[in-house]
Amino acid sequence: MSTVANTTTAIEATNDPTAAAWCRACDQPVGSCECDRSTSPAHPTVAVAGRPDTTAPVDARSHSGAAPVEERSATDRSSADSTTVAPLRLGGKTAAGLLALAAAALGLVGFAVSFETVAEAVEPAFQEYAFLVPTGVDLGIFVFAGIGLLLARMDMSLPWLRLVPWGLTAATVYLNITAYDQLMYQVAHAVLPLLWVVVCEVGTHVIRVRVGLERGTHTDSIPMFRWLLAPVATFRLWRVMRLWNITSYPQALADEKQRLLAKTAMMCRYGNAWRKEAPAMLRARYRMRTLTETDVWAWHTDRPAPDRAATAKRPADTRSDRKPAPATGKPTVAHRPDTTRRSTPRPTPTGTDRSTQSDDSVPTADRLAAAYAQFKAEGIEPSGTELAAKADCSKTVANDWKKQRREGGK
């Protein structure tokens, strides 16, 4: 009854010239609806004048794409597309089967042509058993090539295993070449065995790529033109993809762009010495490639940096009020801190000192200038250590600032 009512509502709404039939399942007009109506002939629609009615629940069984593509980011779409494996249909399976039969026939022809040549070449050494040498070599090439293809299909490839059919094929080619003096005969006997190796390598590559895509372990290759135009930067990108297990090339490019923006923001905020001036957490996230430009500028509001001037390291207390424990043979208790002594509270900065406390929103040069002006107002020529403590920066930055100030005053 509800289906009939919904359909009636849609028909009545079409009397309005400004209304359009709208599918509730895919949230699109009926004309561009992608729903599977074979499973739901009376698919409910609504007529709207301004915007679609989305109050009805969505029938996911009759809808071919429940989630709109626009809700996914570009990185998610590229990652999903790079890991999607299109299944082989009847035509693809038929073509693959025919190509496999043709490759097997090619290998048999090549081995048959070289069989007699190899047998004659080794006859002086093996005599009546000379025919077993080319037979064993050809079987070895077939067996190890098949094992390589099977292991690739099981995602258990052994890189060194492909060297076995290569070596056996090279031995066959060498025996065929040395049996003739004319170049034409040598090339004719060498081409056919080499074609079998090429076919096996192509098959192994196809199987490994498909298995990697199915399991999400396939790593995209970097385009060749990028290696030619920017070899150093491309090598760094390739190194990052291997170190951080980034399988998608578009994702690696997006991370690299994010890293460059974050680095620029760190330099603008903390100066050229940002590797020393920036908070440790920001530097750690930058090395892990999870830092964004927004995180850099919003750091002082989310997580303020600690007051390094107030938490400066104090000299260690060398006094010891603890007496040595008597040798009674009993286990001694670990030393506990003396709680009877009253800790001295740290002085709270007041007056003009409060303005020079750490504020990540104020540039380092401005903090140094303000601190130096306060010292000069008191008639004191500050040292680099005093100026650094006052401006909450490193001693190296303070000394460099004083040096630039002296050079600028000359």
UniProtKB/TrEMBL annotation:
<feature type="region of interest" description="Disordered">
    <location>
        <begin position="41"/>
        <end position="83"/>
    </location>
</feature>
<feature type="transmembrane region" description="Helical">
    <location>
        <begin position="159"/>
        <end position="177"/>
    </location>
</feature>
<keyword id="KW-1133">Transmembrane helix</keyword>
<feature type="transmembrane region" description="Helical">
    <location>
        <begin position="131"/>
        <end position="152"/>
    </location>
</feature>
<protein>
    <recommendedName>
        <fullName>DUF2637 domain-containing protein</fullName>
    </recommendedName>
</protein>
<feature type="transmembrane region" description="Helical">
    <location>
        <begin position="98"/>
        <end position="119"/>
    </location>
</feature>
<keyword id="KW-0472">Membrane</keyword>
<feature type="compositionally biased region" description="Basic and acidic residues">
    <location>
        <begin position="69"/>
        <end position="79"/>
    </location>
</feature>
<feature type="compositionally biased region" description="Basic and acidic residues">
    <location>
        <begin position="314"/>
        <end position="324"/>
    </location>
</feature>
<feature type="transmembrane region" description="Helical">
    <location>
        <begin position="183"/>
        <end position="207"/>
    </location>
</feature>
<keyword id="KW-0812">Transmembrane</keyword>
<dbReference type="Pfam" id="PF10935">
    <property type="entry name" value="DUF2637"/>
</dbReference>
<dbReference type="InterPro" id="IPR021235">
    <property type="entry name" value="DUF2637"/>
</dbReference>
<feature type="region of interest" description="Disordered">
    <location>
        <begin position="302"/>
        <end position="367"/>
    </location>
</feature>
